[in-house]
Design a protein that fits this description.
heterodimer; A: 255 residues; mainly alpha; 11 helices; globular; B: alpha/beta; Rossmann fold; six-stranded mixed sheet
């Protein structure tokens, strides 16, 4: 497995995309720190980048990478190598390099400029979101043989979780605003990894007071270690389930 | 050595393989013949585990290959169209393949030398011509002394000198007692290289016997003419079958 991961790594490094991505994140983070001295505000601005850009880059890059390594996968399949090992090696190599790029790009300036616990929450959420969207990308890649279609499906995932889902959630909340919705929305939020990451971060930033009673309820839930464990478990499910499904499909796929 | 039992494979609505049963014994050399789209490549890819059959069994060396992968150590495969990672150099590709198989100490680099591939080890795969790619594919297939060799259109796209080099190599391996399964549309090549004929048509095995036997029953000297006669005969029979079933 390590051997194949190594070859995929080598291939990813050759494209230089990861380097550009790291530089982009580095520039953004440094610029934010230069513009504002209040760490809390910087983290809040960075949060918006993390919630929009990280999922988009992760999902599009992973899908394109998968299709570009089709030849490599085909070649490996005729060799005495387990199919699952080939697929998971691809996954780990892509996931590790994207996580590394994110940690280096956002983490390094944080160490330099100094950041508190909210910075760590940001790093944690960013890494989790990267992993979730790489998983979704691999799922969309095995669903179809056509590269354009797979990228379409991947983008649809991104649109859905970043934009459409929130709209639906708002609609539900407004329609049923006469009922107590705290627990229902908590359940609905678990169905969207981006929202989960957003709430985790917002509660770290002490602006939850602006959200009234609901904010207080979430603060109580997500602020406690129970909430952190809950959200980590749900995010871990968001990572493992798509990969598991994709591996199953891949091991029965004709190539 | 390879036993295929009632193998079926459906692509969409089309049955690419429709109940293929055939035995490949070691030490023999099989010519896998059939029109385009008759299921030759699908059959080879099924044995390699690249295509997952809809039903039926494939047994390699007494082991049903479903979900297994160790058996592929025994197989050398030369694909019809070799596709390789674009950014890799030829040398890196060979290193990688060796590495994947745990760096066996004894490799067969005869073809690398006779095709002079070692002189262009630092060329990238995407800069190679179709013929050079074929040479790389051939060299890779023979590299690990695999006892079973699948050669999918080995001579297509090669220059005349290289064709002769490859044919000599194939004959040498045949003498060494390896199992060879070769598909090709060039009958004169198959006449030299193979001892058995398996004729596939629309996913069925329509003929499976030795080359000698085929030449005998058609009373032809050359495999090409014998095959043409056989196919015409089969088609006439095919028409007869159709008429009887329609009634």
């Amino acid at each position: 497995m390590v051997r194949i991961v190594k070859y995929v790594f080598y291939d990813i490094l050759r494209t230089r995309f990861i380097m550009l991505y790291t530089l982009f994140l580095l520039l953004c983070t440094v610029a934010m720190f230069q513009l504002d001295t209040d760490t809390g505000k910087v983290i809040l601005s960075l949060m918006n980048i993390v919630l929009m850009v990280v999922p988009l880059v992760s999902i599009v890059f992973s899908t394109i990478h998968f299709y570009n390594s089709y030849e490599f996968i085909e070649l490996m399949l005729s060799q005495p190598v387990n199919r699952r090992v080939i697929f998971l090696s691809e996954y780990f190599a892509v996931a590790i390099s994207l996580c590394f790029a994110f940690t280096a790009g956002v983490g390094l300036p944080m160490v330099l400029y100094g950041a508190d616990a909210s910075g760590f929450t940001l790093l944690y959420s960013g890494i989790m979101l990267t992993l979730v969207f790489v998983s979704l990308a691999f799922l969309s890649s095995v669903l179809t043989r056509d590269k354009a279609k797979a990228i379409g499906v991947a983008l649809l995932f991104w649109f859905y979780f970043s934009l459409i889902y929130d709209g639906l959630l708002m609609w539900i909340i407004y329609t049923f605003m006469d009922y107590p919705l705290e627990k229902a929305t908590l359940a609905l939020i678990s169905l969207n990894p981006v929202d989960l990451a957003r709430i985790l971060m917002l509660l770290q930033l002490d602006i939850s007071a602006l959200m009234g009673y609901t904010g207080a309820f979430y603060k109580e839930f997500f602020g406690s270690s129970r909430g952190l464990i809950f959200s980590s478990v749900v995010l871990a499910l968001w990572i493992t389930l798509p990969v598991w499904g994709a591996t199953r499909i891949f091991s029965r796929k004709d190539l | 050595m390879i036993s295929i039992q009632q193998l079926k494979k459906k692509f969409g609505k089309l049955w690419a393989l429709d109940g293929v049963s055939v035995e490949f014994a070691s030490g023999k050399s099989y010519a896998l013949i059939g029109p385009n789209g008759s299921g030759k490549t699908t059959l080879i890819k099924s044995v390699l585990g690249m295509v997952i059959p809809t039903s039926g069994n494939i047994v390699v060396d007494g082991e049903i290959i479903k979900h297994h992968w160790h058996y592929r150590e025994k197989i050398g495969y030369m694909p019809q169209i070799g596709r390789y990672p674009d950014n890799m150099r030829i040398g890196q590709l060979f290193d990688m393949m060796r590495n994947i198989r745990n760096n066996p100490p004894l490799v067969d680099d005869e073809l690398i030398e006779s095709f002079r591939l070692d002189r262009m080890f630092d060329k990238r795969m995407h800069t190679l011509s179709g013929g050079t790619r074929q040479k790389v594919s051939a060299a890779l297939a023979f590299l690990f002394h695999a006892p079973i060799l699948f050669l999918d259109e080995p001579t297509a796209g090669l220059d005349p000198v290289s064709v002769e080099i490859l044919k000599e190599k194939i004959l040498k391996e045949k003498e060494a007692g390896k199992l060879l399964i070769i598909t090709s549309h060039i009958m004169s090549d198959l006449d030299e290289l193979s001892t058995e004929v398996v004729y596939l048509q629309e996913g069925h095995v329509r003929y499976n016997n030795s080359v000698e036997e085929l030449k005998d029953i058609t009373s032809e000297q050359k495999l090409g003419k014998a095959m043409a006669k056989l196919i015409r005969g089969l088609e006439e029979k095919h028409v007869d079958v159709k008429i009887t079933t329609n009634e």
